[in-house]
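Sanity check record (used in CI):
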Amino acid sequence: MSNLRLDAKQATQFVEQIFNGYGFSKRNSSLIAASLIDADLRGITSHGIQRLSMYDRKIQAKYIMPDAIWRIINQTETSLLVDANQTMGQLVSIFTMNEIIEKAQSHGIAVGVVKNSNHFGAAGYYARMAAKKGLIGIAATNSNPLLVPPNAREPFLGSNPLAFAFPTKKDPFVFDAATSTVSLGKIEVLLKNNQKIPGEWAVDGNYQQQSDPQTILDDLSRDNRIGGILPLGGLREDNSNYKGLGNAMIIECLTAILAQGSISADLGNKNHDLSHFFLALDPSLFGSLDETENNLSQMLTRMRHMSHLSEEPITLPGDKEIHAYEENQVKGIAIDQRTFDELNVIANRLDVPNLRNFDAVKG
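Expected output for Malate dehydrogenase:
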């Protein structure tokens, strides 16, 4: 069976049942499922349902605690510091972003920082939450070490993604990207589809370009990690890789350093203490929200309709996700055979109806 697709509603129900089987409440299982399937609907398969295998390992190892209760360490009218207490990153992130949205609606701007957390999925999900309320949203996180600084033999920083969302008259403008060339999830997707790593994405312990995803994943899973993923800009300074490195360092400052959590270099197989950063800003502080949204909408339209060289349209950040969302609502979310099999193993262990029972599976 290949080129599988799952109906989004049934896939959501499946994920809810999986997390409920782990011991999460029905409400929390629903929140987690919604965030994962949203990523798949937007074509971000690296952060969607295929991530269940990773969460499964972490839950079994008790790195993620289904019954964990996060706590607010400190807050003001415009700030929030939260200890996630090893809960799912999605849950504490949704809570924190909702809290700072309320603060920003009252006071114009608010920042939330989280420590002692886990992988939170796609950063754009949280930035988009703010944009849906007419606010500018920013979300970022550090991660386990996988980014190899220029000329280094081992990783030090995480993929350290940043997401930015700004409301418009229709779909918000959303930019969501790792500060490494790609996320680790993209390497996993390549492996599952029997594809090589293209371009200047990854290096071995001798800072030589590496194209085998299995080798990179194995090297990054060791206690003594070697090699890894390159920063934006790839191998060389003349391709501006120092800019990618600098951006990753900024995210490290806004997350681990600001939260007084663990930096990426100190995270690993036995230490799970990820940190997140969230910001919500009311653009009406600076003028009419209606005019601001109109201005951005007009700018995006002008850019998309610029004169261009080929028959392909000009594509702006976020456009592919918008189109994928519309298409996948109808066609269903894509899933590779390996992920399909992995999820069925998990479902059988948790005594949850597996994907073979779904009439939505298509070959």
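Residues 89-107 form the longest helix (19 residues). If this sentence no longer matches the regenerated tokens, the check is flagged for review.
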